[in-house]
Amino acid sequence: MSDIETFYDVMRRQGITRRSFMKFCSLTAxxxxxxxxxxxxIAEAMETKPxxxxxxVHGLECTCCSESFIRSAHPLAKDVVLSMISxxxxxxxxxxxxxxxxxxxxxxxEKYKGNYILAVEGNPPLNEDGMFCITGGKPFVEKLxxxxxxxxxxxxxxACASYGCxxxxxxxxxxxxxVHKVITDKPIIKVPGCPPIAEVMTGVITYxxxxxxxxxxxxxxxxxxxxxxxxxxKCYRRPHFDAGQFVEHWDDENARKGYxxxxxxxxxxxxxxxxxxxxxxxxxSFPIQSGHGCxxxxxxxxxxxxxxxxxxxTIKQFGIEATADKIxxxxxxxxxxAVAAHAAVSVLKRAQKKNEEA
Amino acid sequence: xxxxxxxxxxxxxxGPDEIFEASRLTGDATREDLxxxxxxxxxxxxxxPVRVWHxxxxxxxxxxxxxxxxIGSPLPSMQIGEATSQFVMGYIRFAHFAxxxxxxxxxxxxxxxxxxxxxxxxxxxxxxxxxKRYWQEFFFELRWYLFLEEEPKKYIxxxxxxxxxxxxxxxxxxxxxxxxxxxxxxxxxxxxxxxDTLFGWVLGLVQNSQRLHTLHHLGMWSIVIFAIIHIYxxxxxxxxxRQSMVSTMISxxxxxxxxxxx
Lengths: 358, 262
Fold this sequence. Notes:
The structure holds 2 protein chains of 2 kinds. Chain A is of the alpha/beta class. In chain A, 41% of the residues lie in helices and 9% in strands. Chain A is elongated and about 110 Å long. Chain B has 2 domains: 1-39, no CATH class; 43-255, Up-down Bundle (Fumarate Reductase Cytochrome B subunit). Chain A: Belongs to the [NiFe]/[NiFeSe] hydrogenase small subunit family.
C-alpha cells in the first residue's frame, strides 16, 4: 500500500458515498469533453492511483491566479485541494508558515522526486541576479530551478508564468521572464489568462491526475480543450458582428441593445480562451456579457499592444503613438502628394523641352 | 499581297510612296508617318496568361484592400433588419476571403507561367543582385525619375528599377500578404483544418494574433502605396518614355516610338 492515499480513499474518508463519487466522475468527464466511456476510466484511476503531489510556488505575481482557483465551481476547489491533489506546498494556501513551510517544501520535492507536479504562479525576474523577487530569503529564480529539477511536469499558471504579463511589459526593468524561458528541460503546460478561468485551472489539474499525462496542447503549449478557439468564435454577440451592428459609443443605443463591441477595441477576435463558453464565477458572466470588450489578457504581450480600446497594435518606433492604419494613411498621403508633385514637374519639363526644340 | 508580306525593315524594296495604300486612303497620312510605320515594329512581351493574371490580380487587390479596410474599420452600424437576417459584415468578409483565394490561386498560376511562359514572364521573380551593370542601370533609371537624365533608355520588359519594385512589392509583398492572410483565415477555420496545417505556424511565430493583424494591415498599406506609384509610373512612362506601357498590358505588344539603337 502506497503511503499516499488514493482519491477514492480520501473521498470515502470524508463521508462521500460511492454514488456521489460516480456522479463526480461523470461530471468531470463531461467537463473535460469526454464521452461516457471515459467515466469508468476516471473512476478506476481515482480508485487506484495515489494522489499526485503538487508543489505550488509563487514568483512575481498578484495572486489573482490563486484567487481564481479557489473559486472553482466544477469541480469545487475544496474537492481539488482536499481530495484530488495532495497540495503539499503552497505558501499562500497552506497553514504552515516560515521555516515550517520551507521544510515542507524541501521534504516534498525530496520525497516525491520525479513524481510531483510543479505549479508556478508568477515568474522569476532575472535582472540583478534575481534580487527583485525574494522568497524564503533566496531569489525566486533559484527556488524555481530547484523545484523544477525533480518535477514530472510544470504548469505555468496565468499570463505571468506563461508570457510575462505586466511585470514583463516594456521596458521590463526587472527582466521578468516567463517560466518556459528559464526551465527548458521539462514539459510545460501554459494556462494563460489574468487570471485563468477557475474551471480551466481545475480542469487542467483533473485531466493530468486522471490520465497521468498532459492534455493535448496547441502550438503555443496551451491545453487545446480550453484555448483552441478565440473568444470571438463562440461569442454570443457574434451575430451582431456578422450583421455589422456595433457599439459606436459606450453610452449609445447600440450598447444598450448589446451589439458587438468590435469598434470599442474588443480583443475577442484575437484572444484564445474559453471565456465565452465556460464564463466566470460559476458561469454567471464574462467581460463581454457585462458590456466591456475583451482586453486579451490571455495573449502573449497583451500589455504592449497599446490601448485596450484599439484593435491595432500601437507602433512606437515612430516616436509618436501610431497604429498601422495611421501610418498607412499618412504614408499614402505623402506618396500621393509626391506623385502629384512629380507629375507636375514632369509636365513642366516636357513643356520646357518642347519650347527649346521649337 | 505576297510581295508585301515578304518585305522586311532591313530589306525595303519599295519607297514609302508605294506602300500602305490603305493608310493613305483616309488622307491624313503624311510622308513622314508612312516612313515611320514602315520602320517601327513591336515586341510581344506579355502573353495572354500574364495579362489575364495582371487584371484579375488588380481587381482582386482592389476588392481585398477595400473589404480588408472595412473589416478593420467597419462601416457605421446599420439597422436593416434583425441580426439574423442582416449580414453586412459577413458579406464584406466573404468578399475578402473569396478574393484572397483568387489572389492565391492566381499567384500560383503566375509562378507556373514563369516556368512555361516566355522569358519576360520570369522577370518579376528575381533581381540580378550580383550583376554590377544591373545596378548601374538601376541608378540610371532612378536619375531619369529624378529629372537628372535627359532621355530614358529603351526596355522590352521591366526597366531595372521597375523590376526591383515588382519583385519587392508583388513577389515578396503578395507572398507576405498570402502567408499572413491565410494564417488569419486559419484562426477562423480552427486547429487541424487545412489552412491551419499549412499556415498555423505563422501565428506560433508571431505569438499574438493582434500583432499578426497589425502586420497584415501594414502589408496592405505597402501594396496601396505600390499601386499608386505603379499606376502613376505606367501612365507617365506611356507619355514620356520611348515605348508603350498601358496598352502593352492589354495587347501584350511593346511598341517603340523611335528606331534609334541606344
